[in-house]
Amino acid sequence: MSKSSLSYRDAGVDIDAGDALVDAIKPIAERTRRPGWMESIGGFGGMFELPPGRFKEPVLVSGTDGVGTKLKLAIELNKHDTVGIDLVAMCVNDIVVCGAEPLFFLDYLATSKLHNDIAEQVIAGIGRGCELAGAALIGGETAEMPGMYGEDDYDLAGFCVGAVEKPEIIDQSRVADGNVILGLASSGVHSNGFSLVRKVIESGNHNLADSFADSTLGETLLTPTRIYVRSLLALAKEINVSAIAHITGGGLPGNIKRVIPKELCAVLDSRQWLQPEIFQWLKIQGNIAVDEMQRTFNCGIGMAIVVDKKDAQNAIAILENHGETVFTIGHIETNDKQDVIIRS
Hints:
CATH 3.30.1330.10, alpha+beta
């Protein structure tokens, strides 16, 4: 008795669906075209040419990240058009703190079974994120891996490359006693701490469809991570920024500490900024201690910027002119513990 002929489709992988998705991505990528963009979607490598004359002493800065378990909420709600923005934001916000302008972006989408309607929504969000950041979407990879993920599960990873002039790199070398710390408002939880968010929802038997503020709990939690690229690049052109910290996992204490030199500390006053309502809800519903909130979530501040005191008002004006909500949240002072102190 002869055996039946097996195909890749029998194993759960649909090559035709993958090819169709590549075709669907092309117009999305086209909308992210910028100087240096080269035709490459569908090829084996993404190509980007540094625009001639644009940089004199370019230093390339790269970043990679994912969206984390926020994806579980997107899957549960069957809402996939914003997590791509999160993916881009987590990468470009990391490299812009060095003063780097994002140049290009690549994505990786892995799933058990490729559903093109869902994948197109995800990648449309990635394209939108790239437009907001000014980065070209030059390629990516879609992997269909039956047995590796649950039937409707998928995961995302992103990779971004930017450039900054070597003399204009923002590092911690200019941070000094008396510097002012400005905070840029977050759009919500962003893309960190969602394992704890999901635990709060599970332990309290909450429903994502429940009303919350002017929306629902699920929609509020899926609010995409704010992309701060254009406002921070504009700021760096006008004043000498001492340091910038992207407030992600580790919260304000963990991330500001990364840009504070030895023998200095950051002193913050939590009464100086407004926290989105979702953080108070999480704290109460999960009975979460204050220090646990502060080291898990951004608590309303997506970026912390250290500037000389004489530049603070000008910096605020520049940032507000670029659509940011800005708070003066603290200052730098001498302290050999190199710590972050949050007062309330």
